[in-house]
């Protein structure tokens, strides 16, 4: 097998990526890095205004970007999302399952519908998006990449109030491994990225008292969490974007069914 020149390893020109939850935070960081590498990026987000703003921002930098309003927990929306990528850019080569929610609620205060919503958005959506995008990749017969954003909570719990979130992320990690087995026959590689504490608008919202149970002091929780990070800093969206770019490129040509932890070393503690 001939080696690929270093300058070409991260060149994704001509490839098309779908990034769910791609309009803000980690998703926007991922969208920006993929676009910079030459990828046509479809930003799929439930918030139409944010999706359009992200599209205009990246397009203004000369990147090939489109956007679609998508509820990833609904099969019809997911089908429309993949068809949008095909009509706008001619196919799908990379799927990044990033969309997710993490409302903080203790188990004993949690209603069944609270649990079910997190599972639908964080876990069932990964199944729906992977199934639809992989079907397109298989029809194209040129392989592809599926990259799932899990969490260090798929390996170790971070704080009370996230039992439903942790359950969903454990599920995504399990789904990643098994779908990697199944899709390898079609040269579709499936991997995951497990972020630690990343500064995003969603995390900032969690710090407000109204976003957490009265019994949980989120400011104190985050202070204690920061103290456990050997790097002594929170991560940034681009820290995840760069790792996703690695997995989307030929830099990761012999990887499938793997999970890369990007947490500043917090799991060491």
TrEMBL record:
SUPFAM superfamilies: NAD(P)-binding Rossmann-fold domains. Pfam families: adh_short_C2. Gene3D superfamilies: NAD(P)-binding Rossmann-like Domain. InterPro entries: NAD(P)-bd_dom_sf, SDR, SDR_fam. Belongs to the short-chain dehydrogenases/reductases (SDR) family. This is SDR family oxidoreductase. The lineage of its organism: Bacteria, Candidatus Liptoniibacteriota.
């Amino acid at each position: 097998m001939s080696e690929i020149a270093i300058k070409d390893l991260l060149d994704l020109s001509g490839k098309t990526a779908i990034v769910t939850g791609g309009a803000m935070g980690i998703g926007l960081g991922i969208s920006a890095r993929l676009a910079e590498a030459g990828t046509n990026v479809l930003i799929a987000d439930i918030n139409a205004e944010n999706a359009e703003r992200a599209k205009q921002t990246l397009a203004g930098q000369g990147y090939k970007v489109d956007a679609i309003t998508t509820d990833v927990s609904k099969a019809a929306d997911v089908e429309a999302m993949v068809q949008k990528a095909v009509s706008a850019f001619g196919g799908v080569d990379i799927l990044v399952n990033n969309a997710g929610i993490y409302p903080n609620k203790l188990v004993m205060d949690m209603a069944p519908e609270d649990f079910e919503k997190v599972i639908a958005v964080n876990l069932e959506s990964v199944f729906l998006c992977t199934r639809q995008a992989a079907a397109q990749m298989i029809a194209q017969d040129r392989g592809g990449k599926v990259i799932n954003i899990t969490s260090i909570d798929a390996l170790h719990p971070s704080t009370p109030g996230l039992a439903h979130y942790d359950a969903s992320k454990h599920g995504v990690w399990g789904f990643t491994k098994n779908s990697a087995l199944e899709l390898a026959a079609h040269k579709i590689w499936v991997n995951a990225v497990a972020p630690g504490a990343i500064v995003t608008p969603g995390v900032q919202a969690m710090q407000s008292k109204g976003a957490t149970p009265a019994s949980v002091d989120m400011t104190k929780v985050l202070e204690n969490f920061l103290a456990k990070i050997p790097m002594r800093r929170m991560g940034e969206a681009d820290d995840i974007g760069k790792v996703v770019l690695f997995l989307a490129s030929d830099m990761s040509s012999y990887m499938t069914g793997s999970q890369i932890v990007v947490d500043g070393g917090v799991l060491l503690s």
